[in-house]
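Support case: user asked for a sample of complex input and structure output to validate their parser. Sending the pair below.
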Amino acid sequence: MSHSAASHGAAAHGHPSHAPALRMGLPISNAKLGMWLFLGTEIMFFTAFIGSYIVLYFGSPGWPTDTNVTHIKIWAGGTNTFVLLTSSYFVVLAHEAMAQGQYRRAWNFMAMTFLCSCLFLGIKGVEYYGKFDHRILPGIIPETELQSVRMLRDDWKERMDSQLNALIPGKDPLHVKQATLISEIEEAKGARKEKMQAWADLNVAFSKYRDEISANKHTLASAEKLMFDLRNQATVKVGDHEQSGVYVTPAIIKSVHSHAAETHTAGHIEHDAAGREISREASDVGLHLPELKSGQVAISDSQGNWETLDSKAVRSPKMKYAGLLGSVSLRHPIVYGNLFASTYFLMTGFHAIHVIVGMILFITVLAQGRNLSDKWSNWVENTGLYWHFVDLVWIFLFPLLYIIPGNI
Amino acid sequence: MVHIAGQEHLEEHPRVNYFAIFVALCVCTAISVVVDIVEITPLLLVFLVLAVAVAKALFVLTYFMHLKFEGRWKFIVLSPTAILAAGLMIAMSPDLAMHYYTNEAPQARAARDAASGLNPPPPQGEAEQMAPGQKAH
């Protein structure tokens, strides 16, 4: 098997007693044949993923394609394409240097390939962080308004419980802790008293919200308004008296508008029966916010009427619930968001696993240091074949995941 | 099995200008990005970016993976997987593009209802909403 038929045929004739009895198989090394067969199975493996993705995409009218919603970063995908191409180029140069007996040069190219793979994973990590940060994860994305308002209830409940546990430590059940908190408010002092009172008040708002959810009374807009009002509930000093209400500044209004443009409208591309897109206007989603110039603030009374004030006249605004609510917020529905996240993570995740395996192969070569020699040539060649395949998969993932969805 | 060092991997092949291939691959990537930026019809875009991807794949397979210089064994080793991979796509195409039915997923229906002013959506059981996969009553 090891002997090449072409170069040793004549010698074999001359010395029949020393010739191998049989020459079977293909004129390539076993290792290379094994690698090619393995890559053959890999082609089918990734075709199954990519094929399923395409079927699910086109079978799901309303599949999320807006990059503001999916948090797909085209610059990251493009840069990673370039990084992988470069690494593919380096690994082929490493193989060539090995064949020419320039082992030091081969080691250097291998090291550069390894650095490229690290860079690829780093950029991938940034992308994954964006997904985790916005909770674009399979199984936890609301797909209908009903799921959105119920998810807010569940997130809010979890936050209330954790805040209660922080205020009343110990192993008592939550309902006992709640009773303890209520009874201790009177004796508590200072900031602790304020926080306990805020928790108790917020819990009343939460219970009301929970009951209204059960009665199916909440819509996305009403839940959004409730959350906005609670988050911006504040006590401010105006002149020598205190005033409480929903407190807004131009910065808050600006962030609401940009958030609406980003997630509400874009995240809410809907399709009518004929599959046409129905877009909604970017608005303050029914919050009825006042128009403020810079240097102005506004505070609402209990009827929801806004009183505009000069920002200099208002002192030390104290947010009542913002700290307690933490990062709890209403998440807008993304139709087919879960399927999107599943397919995205399946494809890019398996690709990333292949990158990590490739890095292990590179490290094995790099660990030889100055001992890198001809006996590693097969290893380098097969590693190169494997790495080119990893590049090949990305060549198809880049247009399918990054370019096409954002454009059709 | 006898191993003669250095013999197995030294299949002779003409020198390839790898840098030229690398540049070609970079140009292909640039074309993809340009196609993404300029305004063209979606169908043309899909065709172009996939054509570019196939061209890049062929560059990598032919030159970086040296398939151009390999013996005929490459057809024996790679044709089954190529046929099966293509077969898989063809087998899935009835679900992909040729189905006669309209998709009736609950979340798509809810989005449609909300868009046509049916808001709040009709009351639904909690379990069926929060646990995907359960059937509606």
